[in-house]
Amino acid sequence: MSVVIPVSADWLTLREKADARSRSIPLANRAARLLRAPVTVHDLGCGTGSMVRWLAPLLPGPQAWVLHDWNAELLAHAASVPVNAADGTPIGMTTRVGELAEIHEDQLAGASLVTASALLDVLSDDEVAAIVGACVAARVPALFALSVTGRVTIDPADPGDDAFEAAFNEHQRRTVHGRGLLGPDAAAAVAGHFRDAGWNVRVAASPWRLDDRQPALIEEWIDGWLAAAVEQRPDLVEQAAEYAARRAGQLASGALRVTVQHEDLLAWPP
Question: Does domain 9-150+178-209+261-268 have CATH number 3.30.1330.10?
Answer without folding.
Answer: no
